[in-house]
Amino acid sequence: MSTPVLRQHAEQQFAEEIEALKKVDQRQRPTNWQLSPWAVVTYLMGGKLDSGFTVSPKYIGNRRLMEIAVATVATDRALLLFGVPGTAKSWVSEHMSAAICGDSTLLVQGTAGTNEELIRYGWNYAELLAHGPSEKAIVASPLMQAMRLGKIARIEELTRIPADVQDSLITVLSEKTLPIPELGSEVQATRGFSVIATANNRDKGVNELSSALKRRFNTVILPVPSSEEEEISIVVKRVSELGRALELPAEPPALKEVARIVRIFRELRNGQTEDGKSKLKSPSSTLSTAEAISVINNGMALAGHFGDGVLSASDMAAGMIGAVIKDPVQDQVVWTEYLETIVKERSDWKDLYRAFREQL
Q1: What backbone torsions phi and psi does residue 267 show, to the nearest 5 degrees?
Q2: Which of 114, 133, 214, 281 would be 334's cystine partner, CB 3.0–4.6 Å?
Q3: Are 261 and 235 in contact (CB under 8 A)?
Q4: Which stretch of DSSP H or E encloses residue 179?
Q5: CA nearest 169: which of 124, 109, 210?
């Protein structure tokens, strides 16, 4: 009996959709791709197939951006997905890899502690001491495995990785080879290999990419949702999916509740009310779409486990304040001002105002 996992990989969760696309996909596929570029974009954006099967959208936004991203990977260029936190960069990266090669797990998570071994290769030191440098002693990184198999390697938060470690990618991206000086050999990339990296603009300047490395990426900037309606649809979709996956014992939130949370996030993020009539101070927090989803899921957990199963203003209040107030001094002032000048004055937001004030 298999143990249920908390979160399936994209290629597992959406295996039925990928198989349905394979059956109808008659277009040219690049070497080692399981779907054509057209089918990959259809998988990302969703749509109804000729067979009658409906593919769910994974990315809600500009289709042209996804076409540019997929076309980049179909060439010999690496792809850099760039944007503010919470704009679905990692989500797009995972689903592109799942659709293209059926494997989204060849992942390097960038942190300040990421070293060159995690990018290139490491060593099995017991084998190394016993027999010296050999192919058997090498511990392949996800990047090396992707090169050998002709798959996609994902690098998350590229600008969190120290600059000297980042530059170890240059030879791989330009020459499509990974030298192994200890063995006097190299790993040559199999056709189908590519790299999809992500970076967010909040980390700009932390470990800035060198100009040499930047030239080896095609950059696609993923924007925040352009309209309130678009952001609401994203939040509703993801909240519903996560609620089912986590088996939260609460009803899906009413559209009105989602719309109110999204509006608060947008107004504080943009520094003005949605109608443009009032200017606002913005907090230091990012207030991304992903955080709005988290706030509502947290509220659903509270409602399901400690309430009547129906999401209320009080269920959302604690999560909302935690998302907004990262700096306890500066952000507290911004949030209090927003409550007293905007939330309090909206006649249909009285319950939200009371819930937020109780949490302060």
Answers
A1: -65, -45
A2: 281
A3: yes
A4: strand 177-180
A5: 210
In the chain, what are the helix, strand and coil shares in percent, each to the nearest 5? 50, 15, 35
87 closest CA partner among 60, 57, 111, 106: 60
- Indicate the pTM of the whole model: 0.90
The span from the CA of 290 to the CA of 283, in Å, is: 17
Phi–psi pair at 47, nearest 5 degrees? 155, 170
> Would you state the pLDDT for residue 84?
86
**Residue 152 contacts residue 195 (beta carbons within 8 Å):** yes
- Give the 3-state secondary structure of residue 314: helix
Euclidean distance between CA atoms 269 and 91, whole angstroms? 21
Residue 245 φ/ψ region, left for φ over 0, alpha for ψ in the -120 to 50 degree band, beta for the rest? alpha
Q: Mind listing the pLDDT tens digit for each residue in 332-353?
A: 999 999 999 999 999 999 999 9
pLDDT (tens digit per residue) in 6-45: 889 999 999 999 999 999 999 999 999 999 999 999 999 9
Q: What is the predicted pLDDT for the residue at 203?
A: 61
* Six-digit token string for 111: 């942190």
Q: Judge whether 144 and 193 are in contact, CB under 8 Å.
A: no
Q: What is the token pair recorded at 228?
A: 């309130």
pLDDT of the residue at 249: 84
Q: Please report which residue ranges of 186-288 form alpha helices under DSSP H.
A: 211-214, 228-246, 255-270
Q: Give the residue among 154, 118, 176, 111 at the shortest CA–CA distance from 9.
A: 154
3-state secondary structure of 337: helix
Distance CA 210, CA 215 (A): 9
* Per-residue DSSP letter, 48: E
Tell me the C-alpha to C-alpha distance, in Å, between residue 353 and each of 28, 292, 294, 316, 348: 56, 18, 20, 11, 10
The helix-helix angle for 313-324 and 255-270 (nearest 10°) equals: 20
Residues lower than pLDDT 50 in the chain: none
How far apart (Å, rounded) are the C-alpha atoms in residues 301 and 4?
Answer: 19
What's the pLDDT at 204? 59
